Amino acid sequence: MTRVTVENVWKTYGKQTVLERINFETAPQSFISLVGPSGCGKSTFLRMLLGDEKPSQGRILVDGVPLQAEPSPDRGVVFQKYSVFPHLTALQNVMLGLELGQSPVLGRLFGKKRRTARDMSREMLKSVGLEAAESKYPAELSGGMQQRLAIAQALVKRPKLLLLDEPFGALDPGIRAEVHEILLALWRETGMTIFMVTHDLSEAFKLGTRVIAFDRRKTRPEELEAYGATITFDLPVMRKIVPPSGAVTSPAETAEAMPKVAVAG
Amino acid sequence: MRRLINQRPEILSRLLLAASPFFLAFLAYALASQARLAINPTDKLLPAWSTILDAINRMTFVPDLRSGDYLLLLDTMVSLQRLAIGVGLAMLAGFVIGVLQGLIPYVRATLANFTNVVSMIPALAILPILFITFGLGETAKIVLIFVGIVPFIIRDLAQRVEEIPHEQIIKAQTLGASTWQIIIRIVVPQMLPRLIDSVRLSLGPAWLYLIAAEAIAAESGLGYRIFLMRRYLSMDVILPYVAWITFLAFFLDFLLRGLRRVSFGWMYRGHM
Predict the structure, then answer these.
(1) What CATH number corresponds to the domain at position B247?
(2) CA of B180, closest CA in chain A: separation in Å?
(3) How far apart are alpha carbons A147 and A163 in whole angstroms?
(4) Is B177's CB within 8 Å of A137's CB?
(5) What's the mean pLDDT in A23-41?
(6) A123 with A145, same domain?
(7) Residue range A173-197: average pLDDT?
(8) Is the N or C terminus of chain A more exposed, i.e. has fewer CB atoms within 10 Å?
């Protein structure tokens, strides 16, 4: 059961402060939705969790251990696109994680080990409903199938954390709902902690057990450089509710309005 | 009336259109040749088709009086061998260095500027240096081809590697890949088809360097023969040789394109 602790994290690029004073701790098996306007640093924050970026100040701990400063197999990731490898079939994409772990020199498995890895990968593909597409290349799959494949590929490593960067942003609403169900089922089954960056508030509330919003508190032009975004509201989702559309307009309103909605819902 | 940019030829007219410039070129030659020969039957500049066919026959099917070699075959084999070794080595070195330079920041910091500067050296300008250093034998010619095209292949490959989406490299690391594993499982398989493209583009310059080197110092080879025949104004040999070189270049390109399609099916599936 994984616990993520974020301690006073800041991120600056030169003089530009992007994020400031980010503090929170997650309960085990959380599904955390990160929301906020474009450019508020939520993707930057996800990249820090991933190890692709380093906090300028502060630190992030997973189960009390500071994060490694580069991506590692305990953290899976699914991006909006380019998450799967175009030169590998669906099955090969999923097997890759297993092959890399067990074969440091060739990165390929043979014989019995290969069959074991293949069976595990088929199992994984089946859990995202792609068993019929195992020999197809990503370019032959639809957007929703590619994202399901990316999830399967990440989960075969059994990561403690799954990081999703607007994973469903490019999908049709119908397909999106379908992938949501698959993701929720896998999350319940594995007990991992999920962080998901999304633009879509209803998606954030539908999936998350907790919704964290990032925004700038200071928005006057002369303040933009020196002050970054921080957590403007942090909200447990007790029940699965979808906020009424139009309820969220400005970030300031959001911070006050959302808890009421949650209570009322 | 639709705009010109929206009018497309049908298959038959497309074929006719594609054939017409070739036909016109041949026609122009035939007319000019006929006109010159009418004035002076011994004119050598624009030989008649029959003279050219005689020359082709002589070079291809009649052994040379002095050496007993079939000259066209000999020249072709010798030239292709030089080209293959030069291009092959450049391909190998360019691929290894290009991939490393594109992927590994320390290698890029060390080599990128150097490669850029070297690629600006006109290879033909250093041909004398190569002849002085390596003598007039095969080595200098092969090195010229190598030096002429390897900087381009390195730069092209490095560029392509940098164009691999960052997400893929991150994803590979979250799957536990080491730098080496990223190279052999992610980068190399995606770059092999790019290498073929890069080599296809390099073949033009490679032929240029080959013929230049053969023209200056050689005892056989397609370029050597053309420049030798120039002394005798033997247009009847030079013209078919040029056509033959063009055909070889075209054919090599065709082979490489076929290889790319056959070996890297993943690039085509789902896109066609």
Answers:
(1) 1.10.3720.10
(2) 8
(3) 13
(4) no
(5) 86
(6) yes
(7) 88
(8) N
Q: What is the pTM of this model?
A: 0.84
User: Which pLDDT belongs to residue B219?
Assistant: 87
Q: Does residue A260 lie within any of the structural domains?
A: yes
pLDDT in tens, B36-87: 999 998 888 889 888 999 999 988 888 888 888 889 999 999 999 999 999 9
Task: Using an 8 Å CB-CB cutoff, list chain B residues near A81.
Answer: 165, 167
Nearest residue to A171 (alpha-carbon basis) of A141, A197, A205, A143? A143
- Whether residues A138 and A175 fall in one domain: no
A144 and A244 assigned to the same domain: no
Q: Which residues contact B251 (CB under 8 A, 6 or more apart)?
A: none
- Same structural domain, A166 and A240: yes
Does residue B197 contact residue B260 with C-beta atoms inside 8 Å? Answer: yes
| Per-residue 3-state assignment (H helix, E strand, C coil) for A91-133 | HHHHHHHHHHHHCCCCCCCCHHHHHHHHHHHHHHHHHCCCHHH
Are residues A129 and A163 both part of a single domain?
Answer: no
Do residues A131 and A109 share a domain?
yes
Q: What is the pLDDT of residues A208-262, one digit of tens each?
A: 889 998 888 877 777 777 778 888 888 888 654 444 444 444 444 444 444 444 4
Confidence bin at B162 (pLDDT 50/70/90): very high
> Domain for residue B125, yes or no?
yes
Under 8 Å between Cβ of A235 and A70: no
Closest residue in B to A88 (Cα) is B266
Residue B108 within a domain: yes
Q: How much is the pLDDT for B106? A: 96
In the prediction, which pLDDT does A150 show? Answer: 93
Could you count the other beta carbons within 10 Å of the beta carbon of residue A112?
A: 8
- What is the domain range of residue B131? 73-267
Q: How many contacts (CB atoms, under 8 Å) link A and B?
A: 95
Rounded CA-CA distance A237/A207 in Å is 9
Q: Which domain holds residue A137?
A: 85-157
Task: Write the CA distances from B106 to A70, B99, B103, B109, B110, integer angstroms.
Answer: 17, 13, 9, 5, 6
CATH number at residue A18: 3.40.50.300
Q: How many domains does chain A have?
A: 2
Nearest to residue A74, comparing CAs of B217, B176, B222? Answer: B176
Q: Are B101 and B158 in contact (CB under 8 A)?
A: yes
User: How many CB atoms lie under 10 A from the CB of residue A71?
Assistant: 23
- Closest partner residue to A87 among B184, B266, B271, by Cβ? B266
Q: How many domains, in total, are found in chain B?
A: 1
- Domain end marker among A132, A157, A182: A157
Q: Which of A157, A192, A219 is the last residue of a domain?
A: A157
